[in-house]
Structure formats: structure tokens, C-alpha cells
Amino acid sequence: GYQPCDPQIICNRVxxxxxxxxxxxxxxxxxxxxxxxxxxxxTFFQEMEEAEAWxxxxxxxxAAKSCGRDLSSVVTLTNKHKTMLGELGNRRxxxxxxxxxxxxxxxxxxxxxxxxxEKMREVCLRWKKLxxxxxxxxxxxxxAMNFFQFSAETDDLVxxxxxxxxxxxxxxxxxxxxSSQALLRKHxxxxxxxxxxxxxxxxxxxxxxxxxxxxxxGVDVQIRVVEVEQLYGEVAEVAVLRTxxxxxxxxxxxxxxxxxxxxxxxDEKEQWLERMEVPEELDxxxxxxxxxxxxxxxxxxxxxxxxxxxxxxxxLVEGGHPSSDEVRSCQDHLNSRYGAEVDL
Length: 344
Prior knowledge:
Number of strands: 0
Order of helices and strands: HHHHHHHHHH
CATH topology of the largest domain: Methane Monooxygenase Hydroxylase, Chain G, domain 1
Shape: rod-shaped
Largest sheet: none
Strand content: under 5%
Number of helices: 10
Number of domains: 2
């Protein structure tokens, strides 16, 4: 009783299976696409969560960071902040890529856009705030750096002025002409250095005005600037006085040397005059007369030197030199010796 199957039935069955297979492939492809979209969505949310966690971590770090207590600590914190800026740049690039992923997800319209847009807006706002806080902290570090550099330079200037004051206020004026000249040369070099530092002292107030308000308005730093200006004024004043004192000391030693030379000449001439006898021969009288003529010329020359000594003494006495009495006594002695020589 076998009867062959109708070919049409077989064709229908084959077509049905083929149609079912195609529908299955479509469903599989659709499912794959949905799964891929879902994976992209959750990858997006995961990356956004990681970005938020990173932002929160940096916010805590920035909130706890100080600006340092001295120049060394500020330099260390600044270097760490530069490292953080590098991390911020890398994280910014990653966040930009994640935002692009979110925009692509929104463009597909496979999921509700409310949660995605809210997350993107929230993270963008937190990121913007983080960059603002980072910028503010960087500005505070720069302000602290400028302040501590200013303080360090001021301290160095004060230390130099204190050392210089000890030098220019020395009571060593030498013990003779040579040592006084050496001291005067050294002192003039110091005076040149003092003058070179005038610009640095005068610039302190300008530098102070460039500091951040919190730093420049401090009472201590303003007092410090005034102290430096006063100290510089004292150093400059004492330096001028020491210049005069050294010049006076040099003048005294030169005067003593000149007096000594004149007295030696007077002693020699006195001894010659005391030993001289009136010659009996005409030729010898002419020799003696010639020597007296030479003596007149020498006395005129010595007289000029003595006048110079008297002028120096007058200047020293009028200037209130501490050795005025000794200088005056030396002057009187020389004048009396020369007067006696003239009488002879």
C-alpha cells in the first residue's frame, strides 16, 4: 500500500525549513546586535564609574594638600602637582573617548537616553570642577613659591648686609701709610658692592606688590622689608663714614711721615750749622757761602712741605679727627723746629 509523497509537499517542507533557518539567523543576528549594544552600554557605564572614582580620589587629594611651609617643601609639592597634571591629561583623553562612545550609543537609540545623558552630564560637571580645583591649587602653589622665593632672597640680602655692616663698622684703620692704603682699597671694593645691592633693596617693594594678597598683606613680611631698607641705609651711612675715617687715618700717617722727613732734614741742618766754623780763607768762605745758598733753596722747598702739613692738620682738626690733639702737637713741634732752624 505504499504511495509516494507528493513532491509539492517535500518542496513546501524544504521551503519551510529554509524560512525557519533564515528567521533563526535573523533572530541570532538581532540578538548578537542587542548583546553587543548592551556590552557597549555597560562598558560605557563602567568606564564612567571608573572616571568618577578617579575624580573623587583626586578631589580628596587636592582637598588635603597644603602649599608647603618653606621653599623646599613647595618645590616638592610643585613637582608632585606636575605629575598629577600629567595624569589629568591622560585621564582627560580617556574620558573624551568614553564620551564619544556615549554619543554613539545615543545615536543608535537602542536604549533610553535619559540615564546615559544624565551620567555624561554628571561626570562632565565633576570633571570641570576638578579642573577648576586643580587650577586653583596650582595658582596657590605658584603664589607660595613666589612668596618663599621672595623670603629666601630677602633673608640672603639681610645676611649679606649684616656681614657687610660688621666689615664697614670695623675700628681697624691701619697702623701706617701702607696698611691704611690697603684697607682703603678693600673698603672701596666693599662700597662698590654696597652700591650694586642698592637696586635689589629698592626693588623689594615692587616684588612685594607682585605677591598674592594673602602674602603681601602680612604684617611680618612688610616689617621685614622695612628692616632691610633701614639696615641698608645704616650700612651705606657707616660705609661713607669709614671711607672718611680711613682717608683721615691715611692723611695722618702721611702727615707723620712728612713731619718725620722734615725733622730729619732739620736735624741734619742743625748739626751742620752747629759744627760749622767761620773759615779764614777766601776760597773756603765762597764754598760756605755756596752751601748757604743751597740751604736757602732747600729751606724754601721744605717750607712748602711744612705748609702742606699745616693745611692737612687744619683739615683734620676742623673735621673733628679723634687724634686732633696729637696732630696739633706734632704740627706745633715741627713749626717750632723749623722756626728755630730759620733763626739759626
